[in-house]
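[step 3/7] inverse_fold.run input=structure_tokens len=394
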């Protein structure tokens, strides 16, 4: 039997890799998981009621692209949040979690060759959400990894790219607020990236799943900056999720929005290859996008955690509290060594930053970091952060 080779160079996924590193060793204290970004704040109390009220919907095949009511709730939210007007019938589509959309959108929108007949390039920040690279491999594109370091403000620096690369670029993935560092692309950054995409005619896939968790100021969105600058209507495709905003990772509900031609192509692919969200869960998503109160309450809890982390790590060389999101990106000498030390001495489990990155020219921009998820209840999180500080930074 012959198997495909296209994924043969994939490294082991981050969490199995972490288990291989740590599980042969005994924890040095009460086990505390601070690895996975799975929100632990309470989800809205009305969720079970909405599911029960619409339970008969489990007896029907759900609308593949999202119910009209859900799509209207999404476009209403985009209007309130970003001031952009989108047609619910042609410019948005519900997703069964944004990972699906981030993967399938590249299959639907990245051409097999550039207009010059060359192999296309997909730009990927490094570190990154791993689905970006798998999607690039699937379509046969060349992934070009851009280091996101303290020197670049933890965002990709596109000025380092040559015209040869940019002329072959078809899609640029970018996450803002960033995972894992919690940096935010401001309006000037978005405007410069969009101008570059206009010049070299590539699309921007904006992963904005952490947009509603921030300190003080709502992060600007790619769609609003593109509209303000008069960019091509197909230039930007954005992805959002209820996992973080509404503490509903198990709902598997997100959406993709963009130009009508892009969405037509994504919808067409999904009609054959997608798995739509059950209708009762679409009703939950519809209400969640329409309700800002629970999102504000959730954000306030994270803002308390930012302040707590800033206090615990005050004076630590290189510490930079996140502007948004719910991860700490803590500088250490070696992420694997630090993760092992924490596990064997305290029982706290964190993720080495190198597991979220790729080696490029023998350099891995995540090697000197650990990622710490601040998703546990506040008191539990405080205990974990204090153990991290005392074990690694004293």
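[step 3/7] decode complete -> sequence:
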């Amino acid at each position: 039997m012959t198997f495909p080779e296209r994924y043969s160079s994939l490294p082991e996924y981050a969490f199995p890799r972490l288990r291989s590193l740590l599980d042969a060793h005994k924890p040095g204290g009460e086990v505390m998981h601070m690895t996975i970004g799975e929100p632990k704040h309470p989800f809205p109390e009305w969720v079970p009621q909405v599911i029960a009220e619409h339970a008969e919907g489990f007896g029907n095949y759900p609308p593949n692209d999202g119910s009209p009511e859900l799509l209207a709730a999404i476009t209403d939210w985009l209007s309130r949040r970003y001031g952009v007007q989108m047609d619910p019938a042609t410019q948005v589509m519900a997703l069964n979690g944004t990972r699906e959309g981030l993967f399938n959108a590249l299959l639907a929108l990245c051409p097999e060759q550039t207009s010059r007949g060359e192999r296309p390039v997909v730009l990927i920040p490094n570190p990154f959400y791993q689905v970006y690279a798998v999607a690039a491999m699937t379509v046969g594109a060349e992934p070009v990894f851009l280091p996101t370091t303290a020197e670049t403000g933890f965002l990709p620096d596109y000025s380092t790219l040559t015209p040869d690369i940019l002329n072959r670029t078809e899609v640029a993935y970018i996450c803002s607020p960033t995972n894992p560092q919690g940096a935010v692309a401001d309006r000037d950054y978005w405007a410069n990236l969009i101008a570059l995409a206009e010049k070299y005619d590539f699309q921007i896939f904006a992963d904005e799943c952490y947009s509603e968790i921030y300190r003080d100021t709502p992060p600007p969105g790619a769609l609003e900056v593109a509209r303000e600058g008069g960019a091509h209507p197909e230039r930007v495709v954005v992805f959002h999720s209820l996992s973080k905003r509404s503490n509903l990772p198990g709902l598997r509900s997100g959406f993709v929005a963009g130009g009508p031609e892009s969405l037509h192509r994504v919808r067409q692919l999904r009609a054959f290859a997608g798995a739509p969200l059950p209708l009762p869960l679409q009703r939950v998503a519809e209400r969640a996008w329409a309700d800002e109160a629970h999102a504000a309450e959730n954000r306030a809890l994270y803002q308390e955690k930012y302040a707590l982390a800033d206090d615990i790590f005050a004076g630590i060389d290189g510490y930079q509290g996140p502007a948004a999101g719910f991860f700490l990106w803590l500088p250490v000498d070696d992420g694997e060594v630090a993760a092992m030390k924490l596990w064997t001495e305290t029982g706290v489990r964190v993720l080495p930053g190198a597991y979220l990155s790729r080696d490029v020219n023998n350099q891995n921009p995540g090697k000197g970091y650990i990622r710490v998820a601040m998703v546990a209840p506040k008191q539990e999180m405080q205990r974990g952060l204090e153990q991290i500080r005392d074990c690694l930074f004293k």
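[step 4/7] annotate
The longest strand covers residues 169-175.
The mean pLDDT is 96.
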